[in-house]
C-alpha cells in the first residue's frame, strides 16, 4: 500500500525523534538501522526513501536533540527570570539530568561520538553548541561581539564535563560531588568581578 506524502513526512519526523533519543542512549554506532526503524514502528525497507544515509539521519537527529535540549535550558531559565543561569545550572547539574540517558544533553551523551562523525553531524553539534554559548553569554552579561565569550565557553565546558564524569562512575556520592562542585564553580565564576550580584548561595 502506497504511503501518502503527508504520512511519509510524519514517518520521517517520527524516525528523527526516535533516533534523537536512541542515539543518545546507545551512541551513533551502538544501534543499527533496523533498531532505529523498529523503534519508530517502521520497517527498515523504507529508510532510504526518507534519508540518504545513516549519517544523514544522525545529523538530523543531532539537530533535533540539540533543539530539544536548548528548549529545556530556556524553560529552566524562564522558571526563574531573576536568576536564569542559576535555574539552568540547577536543572543541568542535577542527579535527575544525570539519569536521563535518552532525553538528556546530547553534547554529554554524544560529544565524543560526534568528534568521529562527518561534517554534517559536526555541523549540527556546532550550531547547537553556539546556541548554548549565546544563551550563557547573555546570562553572564559577557557578550561584546559575535564570537562566544571566554566565560560562557568555560561555563559550558565545566557543566558538560561534570555530567560526563558523573555518569562515568558507579559511586553515587562521587557522582553527586562532581555535579555540586561544578555548580559551585560556575555560579562563583559567573558572579566574579560583578559587585552587583555579590556572592551566590
UniProtKB/TrEMBL annotation:
Pfam families from the UniProt entry: TetR_N
GO MF annotation, one: DNA binding
InterPro entries on file: Homeodomain-like_sf, HTH_TetR, Tet_transcr_reg_TetR-rel_C_sf
Domain of life: Bacteria
DNA-binding region residue numbers: 32-51
Keywords: DNA-binding, Plasmid, Transcription, Transcription regulation
Domain HTH tetR-type per the UniProt entry, residue ranges: 9-69
Signal peptide range: none
Gene3D superfamilies xrefs: Homeodomain-like, Tetracycline Repressor, domain 2
Protein's recorded name: Transcriptional regulator, TetR family
Organism: Methylobacterium nodulans (strain LMG 21967 / CNCM I-2342 / ORS 2060)
Amino acid at each position: 500500500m502506497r504511503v501518502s506524502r503527508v504520512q511519509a513526512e510524519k514517518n520521517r519526523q517520527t524516525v528523527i525523534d526516535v533516533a534523537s533519543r536512541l542515539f543518545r542512549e546507545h551512541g551513533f554506532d551502538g544501534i543499527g538501522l533496523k533498531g532505529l526503524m523498529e523503534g519508530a514502528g517502521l520497517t527498515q525497507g523504507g529508510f532510504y526513501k526518507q534519508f540518504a544515509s545513516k549519517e544523514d539521519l544522525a545529523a538530523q537527529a543531532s539537530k533535533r536533540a540539540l533543539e530539544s535540549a536548548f528548549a529545556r535550558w530556556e524553560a529552566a531559565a524562564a522558571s526563574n527570570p531573576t536568576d536564569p543561569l542559576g535555574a539552568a545550572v540547577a536543572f543541568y547539574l542535577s542527579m535527575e539530568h544525570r539519569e536521563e540517558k535518552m532525553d538528556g544533553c546530547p553534547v554529554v551523551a554524544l560529544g565524543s561520538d560526534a568528534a568521529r562523525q562527518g561534517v554534517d553531524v559536526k555541523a549540527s553539534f556546532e550550531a547547537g553548541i553556539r546556541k548554548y554559548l549565546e544563551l550563557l553569554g547573555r546570562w553572564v552579561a559577557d557578550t561584546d561581539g559575535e564570537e562566544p565569550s571566554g566565560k560562557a565557553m568555560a561555563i559550558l565546558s565545566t557543566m558538560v564535563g561534570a555530567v560526563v564524569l558523573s555518569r562515568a562512575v558507579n559511586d553515587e556520592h562521587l557522582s553527586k560531588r562532581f555535579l555540586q562542585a561544578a555548580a559551585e564553580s560556575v555560579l562563583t565564576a559567573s558572579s566574579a568581578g560583578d559587585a552587583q550580584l555579590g556572592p551566590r548561595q
